[in-house]
Design a protein that fits this description.
3-stranded antiparallel β-sheet; 3 domains; 12 strands; alpha+beta
């Protein structure tokens, strides 16, 4: 592409064309990234933790009005002492020992701290009230709550709720991707471990596609359990053990409490009382003592 030129007059009065000077720039340094600042809330929303009316579907679960006292005795983590707190409108501190300069009339004020239909909205420009509400024993997240006190309300954290929803969605998407991409030799043992049916209602083996549909459905509805158990060595061990037992390669019935080889009746392991045999043997396979048994089991059953 031709460079743009401009005309000018030189020292001798001649009209000449001049190519514009090209300034070298760094593509990276010229890009300005604006990182949004964390939004400060314009108000804080508190909600009663106890639902008072649960038997009447036509009635709201919270009382129409619920008044909160403006005093409390708390354990102050900063000083390591018990302190009286009191909220008074227009006073910057909530600690009574820092309110001694106030008039008796001011100290006797009883601000209206009212939950309407279970909610209390506090503007951000009332930091003393926010401080009182989050310091009181009545707050459900109060640390070192005084004995004999019960939580009454909580503070809603929408950012935290949104982040939890995002995290849950990411886990679900990861589980679904794993379920979709898993090789059949990995999927089938894991599906058995998760309790997914391997046979249809007529007792015939289900197709891999049919199993994968249920596998995906499990990942969708139980992503945490799916991911935690995926690639767990116990999963494959249990699959091989169940297969060996079904084929009669392992005998769990001839001698109570003992696992034997099906053909030779040779002793494998003693199963403790009240232990589930497959669970015990799968854990036994992953120990140094059961390593040889597992190697022989894989060679025989796979």
């Amino acid at each position: 592409m031709a460079k743009a030129t401009r005309k000018t007059i030189d020292d001798n009065g001649n009209i000449v064309e001049v190519s514009p000077k090209i300034e070298e720039t760094s593509e990276v340094s010229d890009i300005k990234i604006s990182i949004p600042k964390k939004r400060e809330p314009t108000e804080y929303i508190f909600q009663l933790t106890q639902k008072y009316y649960t038997n009447s579907p036509s009635r709201a679960p919270f009382p129409e009005n619920f008044l909160l006292r403006n005093t409390d005795v708390i354990f102050d983590e900063e000083t390591g002492t018990e302190r009286n707190i009191r909220y008074i409108e227009g006073v910057s501190t909530i600690y009574e020992d820092e309110q001694e300069h106030l008039s008796e009339q001011k100290k006797r004020q009883r601000p209206d701290i009212r939950f309407s239909n279970g909610f209390l909205r506090v503007p951000a420009n009332k930091p003393s009230l926010v401080k009182f509400l989050t310091s009181s024993n009545m707050y459900d997240k109060k640390k070192n709550r005084m004995d004999g006190t019960l939580p009454i309300y909580t503070m809603l954290n929408f950012e935290e709720q949104e982040q939890k929803a995002v995290d849950a969605a990411e886990i679900r998407m990861s589980a679904m991707k794993i379920a979709m991409d898993a090789a059949e030799e990995v999927m089938v043992p894991h599906a058995v471990f998760l309790g997914i049916r391997m046979k249809n209602q007529y007792g015939e083996d289900r197709s891999d596609k049919g199993i994968r549909v249920d596998y995906l459905n499990f990942a969708d509805k139980n992503p945490d359990a799916f991911i935690k158990s995926y690639n767990n060595p116990i999963v494959k061990v249990q699959f091989i053990l169940k297969k060996a037992i079904n084929l009669g390669l392992i005998d769990l019935t001839s001698n109570k409490g003992q696992a034997l080889w099906g053909d030779t009746k040779k002793f494998i392991a003693q199963i403790p009382d009240k232990s589930e045999p497959i669970k015990f043997l799968s854990e036994f396979c992953l120990t140094e003592k059961g390593k040889d048994f597992y190697q022989q089991l894989k060679t025989t059953a796979e």
